[in-house]
């Protein structure tokens, strides 16, 4: 379909696709096998200015929005979402500074992130605090002009590789979620270390580690916004980044569909290509329908967010839920189309199917997203007349 992209948007998509085809596809199997962080590819993305897509020009970015960033994420994900999460995850770490940071914080950190010289990461999840952010145990106690941080964050994308971390901590446990705050912590700060690198089912090229804080001191000036708004920071940031998960999903779905169609045209059974069989055609047709429907929703969500709309939680959640459920189904069907070959590592759909599962889990499980959507519907319809 023609989504009426601007010339700049078409250029972003074409450049991202070129890098995906030339740099990522030849390396994806090895990166997955070795569980190796794709620094060389990150450098290519940085030199192409793609790392700065969603940052304002005054901080060294290109001045684009959610949509421009998602166009790049989609094309990179068509080749490998293990690589695309390394690209997109740094935005998750930077958004708290971009949306709530002081001018000094923005000038201090965003230019290095926008240029790709440094990566960022976001520290929210803990062993007992995932979807329930009020369960955060990591604490930060104000001592003079410094916060002293103690605790552990779990499953942090980019952990150990990123240089700049925005971390959600409890500064007043008596207030529950209203006692959470956001702090910037730089790699190398005394008392800040990393746990082991996790062994994952998929997205193996990305690094996932614990963040460990033991009497880690950071300046009071590293507080983002003000004390007590950490939960608000988290929710606002995730509202803007969840369409990026949608973009990963549609890129992955498109890659799986492309592989399945190509294989079905070449694979012969009973003397003719299996794509000539109606059963296979119907599977491919459903895969194509679902992928295009997901793309339409994600693109619409991105444009809605970039329009400046205030209430974006429902649309953001919808774009994440629908597209990630599609990606799971499409990759499973791609493996089925390829049959025994699909189960083997010789073809990429085995990896795509493993990778797809995380899209239904991270940045809020799809079950939690449905809660968000349901709560927004309750608000929308509260007080409306019964039109039966």
SSE layout and pairings?
Blueprint: H1 7-24, H2 28-34, H3 39-47, H4 66-79, H5 81-100, H6 103-115, E1 120-123, E2 139-143, E3 146-157, E4 164-170, E5 180-186, E6 192-194, E7 208-219, E8 223-224, H7 230-266, E9 268-269, E10 272-273, H8 278-306, H9 313-338, H10 349-356, H11 366-381
Parallel strand pairs: 1-4
Antiparallel strand pairs: 2-3, 3-7, 4-5, 5-8, 6-7, 9-10
Helix pairs in contact: 1-4, 4-5, 4-7, 5-6, 5-7, 7-8, 7-9, 8-9, 9-10, 9-11
Give keywords.
388 residues, alpha+beta, Butyryl-Coa Dehydrogenase, subunit A, domain 1, Butyryl-CoA Dehydrogenase, subunit A, domain 2, Butyryl-CoA Dehydrogenase, subunit A, domain 3, 3 domains, 11 helices, 51% helix, 14% strand, globular
Query: Got a strand count?
Result: 10
* Number of helical elements: 11
N-end to C-end Cα span: 37 Å
CATH topology of the largest domain: Butyryl-CoA Dehydrogenase, subunit A, domain 3
β-strand percent reads 5-15%
Structural class: alpha+beta
Gyration radius over CA: 21 Å
By CATH, the architecture of the largest domain is named Up-down Bundle
CATH class of the largest domain: Mainly Alpha
Widest sheet: strand order?
A: 1-4-5-8
> Which sequence of SSEs, written as H and E, runs from N to C?
HHHHHHEEEEEEEEHEEHHHH
Domain module tally: 3
CATH superfamily of the largest domain: Butyryl-CoA Dehydrogenase, subunit A, domain 3
Which spans have pLDDT < 50 for at least 5 consecutive residues?
Answer: none
Estimated helix fraction? 40-55%
The biggest beta sheet reads: 4 strands, mixed
Shape: globular
């Amino acid at each position: 379909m023609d989504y009426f992209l601007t010339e700049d948007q078409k250029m972003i998509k074409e450049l991202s696709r070129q890098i995906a085809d030339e740099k990522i596809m030849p390396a994806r199997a090895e990166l997955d096998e070795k569980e190796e962080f794709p620094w060389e590819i990150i450098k290519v993305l940085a030199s192409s200015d793609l790392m700065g897509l969603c940052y304002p020009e005054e901080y060294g970015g290109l001045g684009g929005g959610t949509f421009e960033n998602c166009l790049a994420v989609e094309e990179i994900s068509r080749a490998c979402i293990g690589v695309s999460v390394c690209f997109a995850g740094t935005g998750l770490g930077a958004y708290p500074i971009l949306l709530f940071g002081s001018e000094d914080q923005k000038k201090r950190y965003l230019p290095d992130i926008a240029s790709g010289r440094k990566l960022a990461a976001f520290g929210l999840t803990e062993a007992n605090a995932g979807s329930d952010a009020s369960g955060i145990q990591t604490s930060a106690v104000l001592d003079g002009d410094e916060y002293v941080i103690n605790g552990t964050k779990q499953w942090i994308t980019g952990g150990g590789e990123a240089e700049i971390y925005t971390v959600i901590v409890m500064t007043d446990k008596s207030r529950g979620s209203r006692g959470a705050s956001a702090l910037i912590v730089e790699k190398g700060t005394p008392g800040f270390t990393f746990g082991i690198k996790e062994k994952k089912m998929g997205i193996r090229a990305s690094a996932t580690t614990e963040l460990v804080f033991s009497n880690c001191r950071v300046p009071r000036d590293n507080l983002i916004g003000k004390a007590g708004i950490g939960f608000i920071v988290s929710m606002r940031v995730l509202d803007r980044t969840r369409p990026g998960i949608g973009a990963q999903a549609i890129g992955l779905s498109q890659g799986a569909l492309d592989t399945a169609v190509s294989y079905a045209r070449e694979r012969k059974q009973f003397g003719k290509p299996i794509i000539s069989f109606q059963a296979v055609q119907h599977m491919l047709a459903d895969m194509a329908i679902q992928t295009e429907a997901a793309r339409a929703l994600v693109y619409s969500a991105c444009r809605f967010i970039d329009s400046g709309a205030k209430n974006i939680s429902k649309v953001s959640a919808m774009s994440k839920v629908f597209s990630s459920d599609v990606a799971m189904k499409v990759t499973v069907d791609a493996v089925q189309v390829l049959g025994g070959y699909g189960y083997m590592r010789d073809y990429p759909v085995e990896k795509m199917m493993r990778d797809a599962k995380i899209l239904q889990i991270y940045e809020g499980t799809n079950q939690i997203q449905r809660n968000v959507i349901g709560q927004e519907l309750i608000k929308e319809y509260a007080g409306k007349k019964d039109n039966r």
